[in-house]
Amino acid sequence: MIIGENRDMANEERIVDFLICRNCSSPCYVYEIDGQTVIEALCQTCGNEDVREFSLEDEDDAMG
Ligand SMILES: [Zn+2]
User: Fold this and answer.
1) Buried-most residue among 5, 33, 49, 61 (CB within 10 A)?
2) Cβ atoms within 10 A of the Cβ of 41, count?
3) Cα of 9 from ligand 1 centre, angstroms
4) Domain ranges across the chain
């Protein structure tokens, strides 16, 4: 039996593995998001907890 959960809304509900703390550029694993909106986040590296200071990892930012 195949259970399919992927539907057309996959693009909207993108699950990220972590957020990026803009303050210290560290990955942040303690967060809560709704779709692509950060509701709560806490950077355990620098203590930043301002959701506006976090980016979703897929934000178009040149890597490397
Ligand atoms: Zn930080």
Assistant:
1) 33
2) 21
3) 31
4) 17-56
Output the CA 13–ligand 1 centroid distance in Å.
25
Distance 36 CA to ligand 1 centre (A): 19
Task: Confirm if 42 and 31 have CB atoms less than 8 A apart.
Answer: yes
Closest by CA position to 38, among listed 24, 20, 51, 57:
51
Give distance in angstroms: CA of 18 to centre of ligand 1: 12
Q: Give the tens place of pLDDT for each residue, 9-51.
A: 444 555 678 999 999 999 999 999 988 889 999 999 999 999 9
